[in-house]
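Why do we bother with a discrete structure alphabet at all? Because it lets us treat a fold like text: something you can write down, compare, and reason about line by line. To make this less abstract, here is a complete entry for Glycoside hydrolase family 92 protein. Read it the way you would read a sentence in a foreign language you are learning: slowly, and without expecting to understand everything at once.
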Amino acid sequence: MRSPHAWQTLAVLLLSRVSASPLALRTSPTPRSSETNAPSSVFISDPASLVNLFIGTTNGGHVFPGATLPHGMAKVGMDTDSPGNQAGYDADPQFNVTGFSQLHDDGTGGGVSLSLFKVFPFASCGDTDEFETCATSVNGRKTLRKVLANGSPDDAAEPGYFSTNLSTDIRVELTATRRTAIHRYTFPDSSVNPRLVVDITDDGQQSMTDPVLTIDPDTGRITGGSSFEASFGPGRYRAYTCVDFQGQGFTLDQPTEHGTWLQDAPIKQSVSLHQQYVSFLNQLGGLLTFNPNLNGTTTILARVGVSFISPEQACANAEEEIPDFDFDSVRSSARSQWNELLGRIQVDPQGVDSETVSLFYSSLYRTHISPADYTGENPKWNSSEPYYDSFYCNWDTFRTLYPLMSLHDGANFARIVRGMINIQQHEGWLPECRGATAKQYIQGGSNGDPILGEFFVKFSEQAASLNVSADDLYTALLADAEDQPPNWDLEGRQVNIWKSLGWIPSDVWESSGTNTKQVSRTLEYAFGDFAISQVAKIMGKKSDGDKYAQRAGNFINVWNPNTTVPGRPDIVGMMQPRFENGTFNFTDPRHCSVNDPLQSTCFLDARNVDGFYESSPLVYSQFVPQDIAKLVELQGGSEKFISRLNFLFDEHYFDETDEPSQQIPFMYHYANAPGLSIQTSRQVISQFFNTSVNGLPGNDDSGAMGSYVAFYLAGLYPVPATQQYLLGSPWFPQISFHNPTLGTTTTIKANGFRGNPVNGTGGNVFVKSVTIDGVLSKSNCFLEWDVFQKGSTVELELTDDISVTCGEGDGALPPSLSTGGFD
Ligand SMILES: *[C@@H]1O[C@H](CO)[C@@H](O)[C@H](O)[C@H]1NC(C)=O
Ligand SMILES: *[C@@H]1O[C@H](CO)[C@@H](O)[C@H](O)[C@H]1NC(C)=O
Ligand SMILES: *[C@@H]1O[C@H](CO)[C@@H](O)[C@H](O)[C@H]1NC(C)=O
Ligand SMILES: *[C@@H]1O[C@H](CO)[C@@H](O)[C@H](O)[C@H]1NC(C)=O
Ligand SMILES: *[C@@H]1O[C@H](CO)[C@@H](O)[C@H](O)[C@H]1NC(C)=O
Ligand SMILES: *[C@@H]1O[C@H](CO)[C@@H](O)[C@H](O)[C@H]1NC(C)=O
Ligand SMILES: *[C@@H]1O[C@H](CO)[C@@H](O)[C@H](O)[C@H]1NC(C)=O
Ligand SMILES: *[C@@H]1O[C@H](CO)[C@@H](O)[C@H](O)[C@H]1NC(C)=O
Ligand SMILES: *[C@@H]1O[C@H](CO)[C@@H](O)[C@H](O)[C@H]1NC(C)=O
Ligand SMILES: *[C@@H]1O[C@H](CO)[C@@H](O)[C@H](O)[C@H]1NC(C)=O
């Protein structure tokens, strides 16, 4: 049972600003009592109350803290004029609010993403409060938020809900269904002419062309749309909105004034855009004035439908999803959907500080913002299959996001996979970095392959009932693996030369894509082919399985055994650029690390000739998840492998801000030193990840960082497209995963849990032995998928001895291709 003290700790958290919720915890038997697994002593019934949406909302995290359903299309949130407003919001209160827009992404780089159709309230306008004096442009209208005594802005959020108080004394609240947002504006009593602006042109990057706008003076309905530039690619897209208004607790009647506006000039009575202005003015929209509620508070609801098809569809979506403008029921339905999803993973918070519990559920929450369910909103073709968008980018998410979905959310995973296959069927290749219905720039290889591989390895038996066609899935994988696209910057791979040579040479200039990132692409193509071999084997395609497993071994073609780190002759052997004739070029292993003497960045740039993307050769020299045993051998054996890992951490080559480093802390497992993995992974969390607004060291990258942190706190790390999860120890005495797709629950119990060590160092957290349903496991270092598939109780015996091992016998180390694993 939980102690009263633990109750108190959690109660403090529940009342924190980001949650206005009732009790999250109930000491009760699990409601899944029909299942055989032992229930947790505590059931977290309202995990939404433990989610802090503001983590990483300043200093470059680019996290979206607004309101959305799990994988919802509508992501309604506040937009600020900060430089880091890729997801609209910035938690630094010095930045002004420019509006409340309907669609966003989470944690991306690139330009501001989807900050479309801002609504903005005026309590009054100018000195005279006349319609024409309203400063309607972004710069004219922008307003600060109220600031609390502690210096933070007066903003609050919980899953499915966001609110703020503006310096104009207007309170703004937001919630959403899948394709529709509803806003609630509460005006001050002094507001005689409450007004609302609808901006149809500002997307945060001033890319608008071809706007249309219509105002219905009788109902106040505003419909419109424009074309915009995608955030991270050459493509453009068109989007539409439909905004309706209603009073809360009073009858709004028709607007008392209406008109369009151009920059800071509202034009009374005008009901559509003057096309002659459109060509040279880039800020346009509609403005409405309403009667205040003379009998009480003036609260006006704005229901904002969105569509990528047409304004009519935006209206239809809104009417269907929020017919009665019931803000509170939309909010509570969103919260229940989040609670159902988040509650599938239960942690026992006893003896764990509330910050860690909050970090876990907040990270899990961010795993489910993207990709987004745009079903019915694909402007490019009609299909009855689901359509998902905002894959931004697979390069970020293939490592941890989908393997986390496998553990508790097979149904959404299946829908995403169906959407990906459908895109391949219509466009030829799987989506990689699709956003706003456009192809965006690929960061590395074809990383959709390990995502489909992950799905099929985990759910091949359920695929048919989840309506995923195994044949179509395999065909889609083969397109990436075999067919060179017209432009590999946007889809597919530079596959012809990959097939003929077995690496991407740095001196062959093909014209259908950028000749850059050749080494990191080689490594990722090899891993993509590994994923395909895994699928082929399950499907009984033995020769394909062998063929792609062999191609998965091509990583070795860019391994130069003689390259050393300047000043460290003992660190020898490195992934390096290689010419077509087989000789190697040289890229300084420190390149684009914090220790790079040239301080290069390795971001996407056609001029980069170094061969690597967003990480150093030292980091990429660890990226062979399919064959780490071979890496250990190449690096000179276990002892040298460990000392190289230590070097990466001691000298800060490990890069906590970027995905290629994510597996590195767990790689001591492969040198039979799992205690070092456990300690290092805990140190990484302690040092770099926390619940403050700057608690993310880099971009969240569509939940890639969120899912990574959730895994680390769960004491697991996935090897995508395999049956294995690397095992550490959870930050909780117990964690359980309920998987509705399989109808099973797996509980991991940490016997001897005595709390989490300060800074992640030492502690009674090392795994001495593992039993699965009472039977001693062959390995302390990984769990087979089978454990989760059938639903098991896993018990870890903890010790404070860091020198634990994976075990003695064959099969104690996690599998690798070259040692016969994965068959
Ligand atoms: C926000 O707006 C206020 C009032 O217009 C202005 O004084 C301030 O400089 C703005 N802040 C930023 C960061 O632009
Ligand atoms: C805004 O003001 C309202 C009314 O005073 C208050 O209830 C609320 O907590 C404030 N903060 C937010 C973020 O809504
Ligand atoms: C004003 O509010 C009172 C009490 O809620 C109600 O009886 C009355 O009908 C309202 N008047 C109008 C004009 O809405
Ligand atoms: C989809 O079907 C609708 C209704 O038949 C049609 O109007 C529309 O043009 C189709 N869209 C595409 C992209 O084919
Ligand atoms: C699979 O497709 C069938 C037939 O269209 C449908 O009845 C069923 O609901 C679908 N199942 C899932 C999980 O989508
Ligand atoms: C590495 O060095 C050895 C010994 O000097 C040499 O035989 C070998 O060709 C070198 N390999 C490469 C790839 O340069
Ligand atoms: C291999 O190719 C590189 C770059 O094209 C060239 O500089 C080098 O001389 C070639 N080496 C041999 C042995 O042909
Ligand atoms: C070899 O590497 C250097 C350093 O990155 C680079 O400047 C040069 O262009 C490369 N050579 C070729 C042929 O790619
Ligand atoms: C929280 O994490 C950020 C990002 O890694 C870091 O800069 C900051 O120092 C951390 N704060 C605390 C209190 O640990
Ligand atoms: C670790 O924690 C101790 C005790 O709180 C503190 O004194 C020390 O500075 C921390 N070390 C690091 C590297 O954060």
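What the structure line is telling us, in plain words: Residues 61-340 form a domain with the Beta-galactosidase; Chain A, domain 5 fold (CATH 2.70.98.10). Residues 429 and 492 are 6 Å apart (CA to CA).
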